[in-house]
Amino acid sequence: MAYRKFRGTKLFTGKSWAPQDSVLITQSNGQVEAIVSIAEAGDDIQPVDGIISPGFINAHCHLELSHMAGKIPPQTGMIPFLLNVMNHRQAAIEAIQEASYQTDQQMHLEGIVAVGDICNTLHSLETKKSSRLNYHSFVEVSGFIGATAQNRFEQARTVWEKFREIGPASITPHAPYSVSPELFQLINDFDPGTLLSMHNQESEAENDFFISGQSPLRDLFTSIGVNIDFFQAPGITSLQAVLPHLNKAAKLILVHNVVTSPDDLAFLQQQPINETFFCVCPGANQYINQSMPPGFLLKSQLDKIVIGTDSLASNYQLSITEELKLLAGCYPEIPLEHLLQWATLNGAKALNMDSHLGSFEKGKTPGVIALNDWKVTRLL
Ligand SMILES: [Zn+2]
Q1: Helix, strand, or coil here: 376?
Q2: C-beta atoms surrounding 94 within 10 Å
Q3: Which of the listed CATH numbers 2.30.40.10, 1.10.443.10, 3.20.20.70, 2.60.40.420 matches domain 1-54+358-380?
Q4: In sequence order, which residues have a C-beta less than 8 Å from that of residue 233 and are 6 or more positions away?
Q5: How far is Cα 145 from Cα 131, in angstroms, rounded to an integer?
Q6: How many A from CA of 311 to the centre of ligand 1?
Q7: CA angle 8, 354, 317 (to 5 degrees)
Q8: 201 Cα to the center of ligand 1, angstroms
Q9: Please, which residues have CB within 8 angstroms of residue 294's CB and are 6 or more apart in sequence?
Q10: Which of 30, 150, 313, 319 is 20 to 30 A from residue 56's alpha carbon, by CA?
């Protein structure tokens, strides 16, 4: 059997550094065979300039928004951003599908092997059918008016039925401020024990909407012609207000968490959801609000942080490497092996893909990449 053998400047396993002078051995199809010392590795070792790592996991993306690249102005703040995205959704379907396809190819080159992808439509379906990447499709539903809940949910279910034919898929809420209690209940009851994802606490406006009721989010609803005069702010943060609606999920990926507090974390730890991951998307936070995910969260949740690029509507590229570079620039005290664990093994666990992705354990096919000066080369 033909083996591939790689020796880089360092070898990251998905969880930690392998001993210096380790060699990664895979089968020709990329299946991991072993990590051995150079003395045991034999001949034909391929020298690699850079750190060798398992392929990256992009835990939060919107492939179907790829055609918005360069169209949404940066640093407008949350509400203008959301309105801009809504206005740009009406593009020609061929253009949307072509941009999805090109972005999928680009993510492959960037060393990404799996994606947690938000879908509101079927526009990314054809790309996913032929992709080399592994996708979990989160079919997203929103609607703040309770009377529309059943109708919105049925529309999402139609989309979900198509995506689940080609891979893992779930019906997932958009955000605390855009989903009614009735709609949350339909989502919660639909598939107990599933994996869910939700945008969470991306800006102060979201918390203010739930704490005081005074928030620019009210202007967003006015702009789109939705009367929310009935809404009474519960006086607690958005996360605390809606988490009890999601008590049947086995796993939840909360995305952004820019204004999540230690109190929110303590509240979350008392909830019956078995496992929560925190997806950080610093590139999108910078693009929209010039903000960053909070240091306390990054430093206290080593095994629960995952990395997302968000979409080309709110980022200059979909590159996990660029996200890690931003985090390293803002928090230089965070060790590189933590950043790499978030981008590999943690992401695979969050997306239920750690049986074959995320680390160099025998039998897995996690992809092999080299990272050198924040540039990725794909080795397998
Ligand atoms: Zn998003």
Answers
A1: strand
A2: 9
A3: 2.30.40.10
A4: 209, 210, 211, 212, 213
A5: 37
A6: 7
A7: 65
A8: 12
A9: 257, 258, 259, 260, 261
A10: 313
d(CA 250, CA 262): 22
| Cα 117 to ligand 1 centroid, rounded to whole Å | 9
pLDDT tens for each residue of 208-250: 999 999 999 999 999 999 999 999 999 999 999 999 999 999 9
Calpha distance 125→167 (Å, rounded)? 10
Write down the pTM of the prediction. 0.98
pLDDT tens track for 253-278 = 999 999 999 999 999 999 887 899 99
pLDDT in tens, 140-189: 999 999 999 999 999 999 999 999 999 999 999 999 999 999 999 999 99
- CA angle, 117 then 120 then 125, to 5°: 60
Q: Other CB atoms closer than 10 Å to residue 117's CB: what's the count?
A: 31
Q: How far does residue 256's CA lie from ligand 1's centre (Å)?
A: 8
- Domain spans in the chain, listed from the N-terminal domain onward: 1-54+358-380, 56-356
Secondary element (H or E) of residue 61: strand 56-61
Task: Report the length, in residues, of the chain.
Answer: 380
CA distance between the termini of the chain: 17
What residues does the ion ligand 1 have nearby, CB within 5 Å?
A: 310
Q: Which residue has the tokens 């979909």?
A: 318
Calculate what percentage of the chain has a pLDDT beyond 70: 100
> Residue 130 corresponds to which tokens in the numbers above?
């032929």
Question: What is the CATH code of the structural domain delimited by 56-356?
Answer: 3.20.20.140
Among residues 26, 71, 38, 22, the alpha carbon closest in space to that of 287 is found at 71
The span from the CA of 83 to the CA of 61, in Å, is 19
Q: How far is the CA of 218 from the centre of ligand 1 (A)?
A: 20
Would the pLDDT of 1 be above 70?
no
Distance 140 CA to ligand 1 centre (A): 10
pLDDT per residue over 103-149, tens digit each?
999 999 999 999 999 999 999 999 999 999 999 999 999 999 999 99
DSSP state of 365: -
Q: Do 1-54+358-380 and 56-356 have matching folds?
A: no
